[in-house]
Design goal:
Oligomer: single chain
Shape: globular
Number of helices: 17
Number of strands: 10
Number of domains: 1
Order of helices and strands: HEHHEEHHHHEHHHHHHHEEEEHHHEE
CATH topology: Cytochrome p450
Strand content: 5-15%
């Protein structure tokens, strides 16, 4: 059963323009072409339809994105405002991705959001960047040791996905053996398939056990530092905040690694990077945040009252999806930044890869993600300097999610080298 856009009394939506389904192969193969078509047909704010026929607005204009993310009063991240909740079935696959009203940093608004942020941000900031880099170097060596003697590897499953979750497990105080299960739960939630609800329940149980373990025996980790906050948070609040931190830190960081390595292996401009050429790892990583950002669409914001955005009438309770990848490619702003429509990312970080405004990814979390991703790429290049794609670039497949843009696999080949024993 779909929910028609021609019933304004029920949904508060205009009859025109016709909504664009938020599905289809172009989201995976060529999203920028799709966003160009959307921009030409509907402008910077696009009427879209989520699976199941539920309406939303996709914000793809840079200026409009800045407007939405800079106004938490008019466009709060308060999922409880959504005017579609009466129609949403319990087993809707996107329910874990969209979220439900929860007492966490991600799903609260106003003073309550700032209360959670005041506890989470200092805890993240307490992670020692030098120790984190050393830990990531060791984890990278251990993972590479498992395949370096074979001359071939599948970098997503064997490297880019496990490394961030193992680093996060170290930050949180998880045992290393719990990393693979943690990785599966977050991937299943992000892919929004049939097992998304089961994965969400398992994720909650993992965080519940983690909080209980640190209550009983505090350690030198992020969870214990959060539990020591004097703000009077409940265990439920801690669990939801930890779920938000872990989910936001895993797959986007994994995709940042995979997308950056793919760029360096397929673009001749980065051919010299293996030998320390002028196009560095950092440049490749920044280019990915502009052109191929791991989080393409972020859910979301909800209008606190009727308003106009771009040329569209947005009703109270309407969902706004943040088209981060599309806004980064807005030709009007790109031309303003660089003087042309050519890439403007050399040294420029005015992208929306980490969102913007009050609900942006906290700066310490951005630093943590960059340390994990950069260390992973640098150790890989150091250990396997002649690494190359093992398949034609055009055969690489993207993850089946309009929200996250990463590779399902990245097969590579290289000259076999000896293991180093997981220690530098």
């Amino acid at each position: 059963m779909t929910h028609s856009w021609t019933a304004p009394a029920q949904h508060g939506w205009q009859q025109e323009p016709a909504p664009i389904p938020l599905t289809g192969p172009l989201f995976h193969s060529d999203p920028q072409r799709l966003y160009q078509d959307m921009r030409r047909e509907q402008g910077p704010v696009v009427a879209v339809e989520l699976p199941g026929g539920f309406p939303a607005w996709l914000v793809i204009g840079y200026r409009e994105m800045h407007q939405v993310t800079s106004d938490p009063e008019l466009f709060p991240r308060d999922v409880g405002l959504w005017n579609q909740w009466p129609n949403i079935p319990e087993d809707w696959p996107l329910r874990p991705m969209v979220g439900e009203p929860r007492p966490s940093i991600y799903y609260t608004a106003g003073a309550e959001h700032r209360r959670h942020l005041s506890m989470v941000e200092p805890a993240l900031d307490s992670v020692d960047p030098f120790q984190l880099r050393r830990t990531c170097e060791d984890l990278a060596d251990r993972l590479i040791d498992q395949f370096c003697g074979t001359g071939h590897a599948e970098l997503v499953a064997e490297y880019a996905e496990p490394l961030p979750v193992l680093a996060l497990a170290w930050i949180l105080g998880f045992a290393n053996e719990d990393g693979p299960e943690l990785a599966w739960t977050m991937k299943a939630i992000a892919d929004s398939g049939a097992d998304a609800q089961q994965a969400l329940m398992e994720f909650f149980g993992q965080m519940q056990s983690l909080v209980a373990a640190n209550r009983a025996c505090p350690g030198n980790n992020l969870v214990s530092r959060m539990l020591a906050d004097p703000g009077g948070f409940t265990d439920e609040e801690y669990m939801h905040d930890l779920m938000a931190i872990t989910a936001a830190g895993h797959l986007p960081t994994s995709d940042w690694i995979g997308n950056s390595v793919r760029l360096m292996l397929t673009d001749d401009r980065f051919a010299a990077a293996l030998g320390g050429g002028r196009h560095s790892v950092g440049q490749a990583m920044n280019e990915v945040l502009w052109e191929d950002t791991p989080t393409q669409i972020l859910s979301g914001r909800w209008a606190a009252r009727d308003t106009r955005l771009g040329d569209k009438l947005v009703r109270r309770g309407d969902m706004l999806l943040l088209g981060l990848g599309a806004a980064n490619a807005d030709p009007h702003v790109r031309q303003h930044i660089s003087g042309s429509v050519e890439p403007a990312y050399s040294g420029n970080r005015a992208h929306f890869a980490f969102s913007h405004g009050e609900y942006r990814c906290p700066f310490p979390a951005q630093q943590i993600a960059e340390i994990i991703a950069r260390t992973a790429i640098e150790v890989l290049i150091d250990r396997l300097p002649d690494i190359d794609l093992a398949v034609p670039a055009e055969t690489l497949v993207r993850r089946p999610s309009p929200f996250l843009r990463g590779m399902t696999s990245l097969p590579v080949r290289f000259t076999p080298v000896r293991a180093v024993g997981g220690s530098r």
